[in-house]
Automatic annotation (TrEMBL):
The keyword Hydrolase applies. GO terms for molecular function: nucleoside triphosphate diphosphatase activity. Keywords: Hydrolase. InterPro entries: ITPase-like_fam (IPR029001), Maf-like (IPR003697). Pfam families: Maf. SUPFAM superfamilies: ITPase-like. PANTHER family: BIFUNCTIONAL DTTP/UTP PYROPHOSPHATASE/METHYLTRANSFERASE PROTEIN-RELATED (PTHR43213), MAF-LIKE PROTEIN (PTHR43213:SF14). This is OLC1v1017973C1.
Length: 232
C-alpha cells in the first residue's frame, strides 16, 4: 500500500465496509480499525442530514471514550488520526517506525454515517431479507439518494467540524433474478438502504449518478480532506 506523502500520521477506520477501506487505502493512508458501540436506533432526527451528522458525532464520542480508556489494543502504536463509520472490524496493519514520530499523540477523530432516502423516507440497514428486497425493488426503474456525513474532531484543541454530502442515483429496471441473487448473497443486508451500486450485479443497472461514487460508497473523499484541513 502506498502511503500518503508527508502525512506523518496513522489512521484508525471504524468500519468493516470493504468500500470504505478501499477508498481510504486509495487516498494513501495506512490504517487500523476501531468500533463505535452505540445504539443507532435510539438516535432519531427528522431530517436525514441531521440524523447522519448526529450519528457520526455519537460514534465519535463513543470511540473517543474507548480510545481514552485504553481499550484500543493498538494504543502503543500512537495513532494520530482516528476515522470511524457505522461498523467495525479489527484490521491492524503496522506502520514502519520511520513513518510515525515516537512522540506522536492522537490528533484527529473522524467519524461517518450514511442513510439512503427514497421517496422522502429515510432507509437505514434493512431489518430482514424481505425489507431488503422491498428496498431494491423500489429502486428498479426509479431513483434514490444517499446522504453521507463526516465529522472531524481535533483531539488536542477540541475543534470539531462536520458536514454532509448528498448524491442522487437513478436506476434502469432491475431484473427479478438479479434481486434474488443479491438477497441470497446477503451483502445488501448490512448496508444502508440495501444499496451497493458498485456491486457487479447491480452496477449494469445504474443509469446515472449525480455526485461522486465515493460518497455513495460511504466515504466522500473531497469532504473528508476538506474537514481534516479545517481542524488541523
Amino acid at each position: 500500500m502506498e502511503t500518503r506523502p508527508n502525512s506523518g500520521f496513522k489512521v484508525i477506520l471504524g468500519s468493516s465496509s470493504i468500500a470504505r477501506k478501499k477508498i481510504l487505502a486509495d487516498m494513501g493512508y495506512e490504517f487500523t480499525t476501531m468500533s463505535a458501540d452505540i445504539d443507532e436506533k435510539a438516535i432519531r432526527k427528522e431530517k436525514p442530514e441531521e440524523l447522519v451528522v448526529t450519528l457520526a458525532e455519537a460514534k465519535a464520542d463513543a470511540i473517543l471514550s474507548k480510545f481514552r480508556s485504553n481499550e484500543n489494543p493498538e494504543k502503543d502504536e500512537k495513532p494520530t488520526i482516528l476515522i470511524a463509520a457505522d461498523t467495525a472490524e479489527a484490521i491492524i496493519p503496522r506502520l514502519a517506525l520511520d513513518e510515525i514520530k515516537e512522540d506522536a499523540e492522537p490528533r484527529l477523530l473522524i467519524t461517518c454515517d450514511q442513510v439512503v432516502v427514497y421517496e422522502g423516507v429515510v432507509r437505514e440497514k434493512p431489518s430482514s431479507k424481505d425489507e431488503a428486497r422491498q428496498f431494491i425493488e423500489g429502486y428498479s426503474g426509479g431513483h434514490c439518494a444517499t446522504v453521507s456525513s463526516v465529522v472531524v474532531t481535533n483531539l488536542k484543541t477540541g475543534m470539531r467540524k462536520r458536514d454532509w454530502d448528498k448524491v442522487e442515483i437513478h436506476f434502469q429496471d432491475i431484473p427479478k433474478q438479479v434481486i434474488d441473487s443479491l438477497i441470497e448473497e446477503g451483502d445488501v443486508l448490512y448496508v444502508a438502504g440495501a444499496l451497493i451500486i458498485e456491486h457487479p450485479l447491480i452496477l449494469p443497472y445504474v443509469k446515472e449518478v449525480v455526485g461522486t461514487t465515493d460518497s455513495v460508497m460511504g466515504l466522500p473523499i473531497a469532504l473528508t480532506e476538506k474537514l481534516i484541513k479545517e481542524v488541523l
